[in-house]
Design goal:
globular; alpha+beta; about 120 residues
Length: about 120
């Protein structure tokens, strides 16, 4: 049973899915002065549903000292936040005119979909 498909059918009637592009973190390279420069795999087009965070999500983010514009994103497939053991930063979600958003925390991970917290990045 595709629960994500059923839920998305209901929520997208109120809050339509939008096309996004996912840049998956591959770690970093060393730039000038040994400064870390993030690197990403080739862009991956997708469709996502972006919503406000609910109180349960806000509790999960409490204590992470995250500031700025934060949203929840539901997407088929996987997204990854920062992984220190894997030496990777978070994935980037490009939302067209809404800008680039960094995945800061995976809130729910299932075999075929992910809910993550994303934060708007300043250009």
């Amino acid at each position: 049973m595709d629960l994500r498909g059923i839920a998305n059918g209901v929520t997208s009637a109120i809050n339509p899915n939008e096309p996004v592009t996912i840049l998956r973190s591959t770690g970093y390279t060393a730039g000038a002065g040994a400064r870390q420069v993030p690197s990403y795999a080739a862009a991956d087009p997708a469709s996502a549903n972006v919503q406000a965070l609910d109180s349960v999500d806000l509790k999960q983010l409490d204590g992470l000292n995250i500031q700025g514009t934060i949203r929840a994103i539901y997407i088929r497939g996987s997204l990854l936040g920062t992984s220190r053991p894997d030496v990777k930063g978070g994935d980037i979600v490009q939302r067209g005119a809404a800008g680039n958003w960094l995945v800061v925390k995976v809130l729910e991970a299932w075999p075929n979909w992910t809910k993550a917290a994303i934060v708007l990045q300043v250009p």
